[in-house]
Amino acid sequence: xxxxxxxxVTLVLQAAARGDAKAxxxxxxxxxxxxxxxxxxxxxRLNPGQTLQPTALVHEAYLRVAGExxxxxxxxxxxxxxxxxxxRDILVDQARRRGSLxxxxxxxxxxxxxxxxxxxxPSEDVLALDEALKRLEAEDPRKGQIVNLRYxxxxxxxxTAAALGVSVKTIEREWRFIRAWLQRELSx
Length: 188
Hints:
- By secondary structure, the chain is mainly α.
- It is 70% helix and 0% strand.
- The protein is built from eight helices and no strands.
- The longest helix has 24 residues, at 21-44.
- The radius of gyration is 18 Å and the shape is globular.
- Residues 110-123 have low confidence and may be disordered.
């Protein structure tokens, strides 16, 4: 996002927090492309065979985030962190639904375009990541925020530091710790 657009998003979020209904209507066009980029990035990391499209993910996440009555956005970083968290929750919910017995979670999928049977890889990796992140957030909420901003919202170290009000060195150090911690949690 360009610096001018970042400032525009912050101003619109502040106006919406003051109760300006017009500002709330202006928000989606300002953030839509960034949310689509975020959704495409999240969807690219998933196993093949997903039925949810990036556009649907953006719309669902936006409804969850902006549909709340004055959540009190504390600027662009807070908004995008909440949107990234909403996308994460939506993808985890979808993985749980797909894995349920009611939806045939104990069976492999057959792709109509392929002659051989294609068994879809399990969605346990999404669920395992979510469980590990919940444990991390319980131990240290700020580390959970760093994951949401760095991994899910695709913020740089500088943007994450600014959003959380800490130094870039702190973010770099904690990001190294988080990555090692997640590696240990997910491999064990």
